[in-house]
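We emphasize that the prediction below concerns an isolated chain of 288 residues; any contacts that depend on oligomerization or on bound cofactors are therefore not represented. The input was used exactly as deposited, without trimming of termini.
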Amino acid sequence: MATQHSRSAARLMMAPAVILLLGWMLVPLTMTLYFSFKKYLPMRGGDLGWVGFENYVRFVTSSSFWPSVATTLTIVGGVLLITVVLGIFLAILLNQPMWGQGIVRILVIAPFFVMPTVSALVWKNMFMDPNYGLLSYLWEFFGAQPVEWLSKASMTSIITIVSWQWLPFATLILLTAIQSLDSEQLEAAEMDGASAPKRFAYITLPHLGRAITVVILIQTIFLLSIFAEIFVTTGGAFGTKTLSYLIFQRVLESQNVGLGSAGGVYAIILANIVAIFLMRIVGKNLDA
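Result of the prediction step, given as a token string:
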């Protein structure tokens, strides 16, 4: 049992890291709140004084605000659906004995380590280009007209690109959970005459509940701030402008730091609302 002296020593050793992390989070947050109440135009007059809640009102009443929130939530929902469903399928498949199993698992997980900007460029130029992309040649091979993916099916394209990036993460977490499943339960159910779908529905899927919860929570936190893929592919056009991209436009393109900071506060509020909702609805599995 740890003594009071050892606990005090542990707190003392952890203090520098805790202070650094708090500073890393609190300093940018404090500056964002500070600038959100000011009219600050770096290239057009600089600091023009306090404006109160004017930036918040302007940002939330903008014609682009609610569509950007809807776009963000649509992308998050679409990516979560694809990665969880396909992640379960791939995890079950990779758990089966096969030749070169280790190499196959590495290849499946590899896309997760590709930078978002790189993967977006690869999809944009090598797959979705209407003239020279692989999908264009595939469409022509079957006698169909090539699709201008990033303009005609922009949301589908963004969700596909982001899902390709996050599918390995979901697969890895779910594969780890499946490997912890007691095989004797499945064998006993099979001996009792349970079919494969029933074994999956009543044994495998409930066992994956906690892992699915972890995947949803972690991915949602990162997906709410999706930016690089949209910047590289559509530039926010064709209905793909997310809240993060809208903030980028207000800060860099409009040179309005105060307005962008107010948008940042709204993004924090949105992230917390979604996180609380998920913890209450989905996070119950963590207590099971």
